[in-house]
Design brief:
The complex is a heterodimer.
Chain A: H1 2-26, H2 30-47, H3 57-76, H4 98-115, H5 119-129, H6 134-141, H7 145-178
Helix pairs in contact in A: 1-2, 1-3, 1-5, 2-3, 3-6, 4-7, 5-7, 6-7
Chain B: H1 3-10, H2 24-68, H3 74-96, H4 110-149, H5 155-204
Helix pairs in contact in B: 2-3, 2-5, 3-4, 4-5
The chains are: A mainly alpha, B mainly alpha.
């Protein structure tokens, strides 16, 4: 038992941020993402004995995360969500936090745009953003490497387009308010 | 903004600290329950030890003593030394392993935690010092009893019997201490660790 605990602690220590970000890509709301993240950790703990080292640990973790995310989303029955928080709601306005705010704004946009993607595309982009190799993405999702390559290329284009659209939309809204 | 920049920004996100569903109050109350369960176990062990001690003494004094019909005074001296050591060790266990007068206090009391820690740590002292000492004295007492029992035998047989007794006592004692240590690590140490953490939290507060 202590060995299992140690192994689990080690896995969590090494992969927590990565797993959380994948959860975040699957769940637009930060609280939902935290719930999902905890659910993933519970699943990892419960299924740790099934990991036999046939696949890479990261592949196994991604599979658990993505499967849990799919189930979690189904249970919630949610689709595209609006941007969770608006830039104007950010409380801190001091100069030193400006960069942080910009980062936060970018991430919010990114979350919004990712959430506009198809279900499978969301999973792919969440792994791609974690710098997971095409081969591993293909293994996790049960696709061929070529198929993943083609999909990634399309997703990147779509994401860029969505980001641009989002920026234009915001500029339009701000200009309308001014008028 | 290119994809690499997006990727870099994305990776700045960190997982939140896991929320411990148990509140501090629940943790303290759980610890108190565990401590009380261990104290009950200690009292129960002490009672069993006293019963076994009484029965063994009765068996030695009323059955073995009559059966062997001691020829010298060494038999009685051996009995007194052996049971004296066991009795003193049992008495120390009773007095030191239970936080008398503080059993009903709660875990938010620093005094209670200190007393409980002291009583639980005594087990370690007992395993390291008191029990080995008691075993050595008991072995001396038993050897004196053997001295009387084999008084009329040849010196070779007597030597063999004494050596055999010492070997058996060392083996039994060693095993007993080994398992006591394991039991201590399994039952006592986690609670001591948690109580120490709680004590330091109380001190900080």
């Amino acid at each position: 038992m202590p060995d299992k605990e140690k192994l689990f602690e080690q896995i969590v220590q090494e992969n927590r941020d990565r797993l959380y970000r994948i959860c975040r890509a699957c769940m637009p709301d930060p609280e939902d993402a935290s719930d999902l993240y905890q659910e993933v950790l519970v699943k990892v703990w419960l299924n740790l004995h099934t990991f036999r080292g046939d696949a890479k640990l990261s592949t196994w973790l991604y599979r658990i995360t993505l499967n849990t995310a799919i189930l979690h989303r189904k249970q919630q029955g949610k689709n595209t969500e609006p941007l969770p928080r608006h830039i104007a709601e950010l409380p801190d306005t001091t100069a030193e936090s400006l960069q942080k705010q910009e980062q936060e704004v970018l991430l919010q946009k990114l979350h919004y745009c990712i959430n506009c993607l198809e279900k499978q595309d969301r999973l792919i982009i969440s792994l791609l953003l974690e710098e997971v190799s095409y081969k591993e993405i293909a293994e996790v999702l049960g696709l061929t490497v070529n198929h993943v390559g083609v999909k990634i290329s399309r997703i990147k284009q779509k994401l860029a387009m969505l980001m641009e659209q989002h920026v234009n939309q915001e500029t339009f809204t701000e200009n309308s308010k001014k008028l | 903004m290119n994809f690499d920049d997006i990727q870099k920004s994305w990776q700045t996100q960190h997982a939140p600290e896991l929320i411990n569903k148990e509140s501090d109050k629940t943790i303290v109350s759980n610890l108190q329950e565990r401590t009380k369960a261990l104290q009950r176990k200690i009292i129960w062990t002490n009672i069993m030890m006293t019963v076994v001690l009484c029965l063994t003494s009765a068996a030695f004094v009323f059955i073995l003593r009559k059966g062997f019909a001691p020829k010298t005074m060494w038999f009685d001296i051996g009995l007194v030394i052996m049971f004296g050591a066991i009795l003193l060790s049992a008495l120390a266990q009773w007095l030191k392993s239970v936080p008398w007068g503080n059993l009903k206090a709660d875990s938010s009391s620093n005094e209670y935690i200190s007393h409980t820690l002291k009583s639980l740590r005594f087990r370690d002292t007992s395993i390291r010092l008191i029990t080995p000492l008691q075993m050595v004295i008991s072995t001396i007492g038993l050897n004196l009893i053997y001295l009387d029992i084999f008084w009329d035998e040849s010196w070779k047989l007597r030597l063999v019997m004494h050596l055999a007794l010492i070997i058996v006592m060392v083996l039994v004692g060693g095993l007993s201490l080994y398992y006591s240590r394991l039991r201590y690590q399994e039952l006592y140490e986690p609670i001591i660790k948690d109580l120490e953490a709680l004590k330091s939290k109380l001190r900080d507060a």
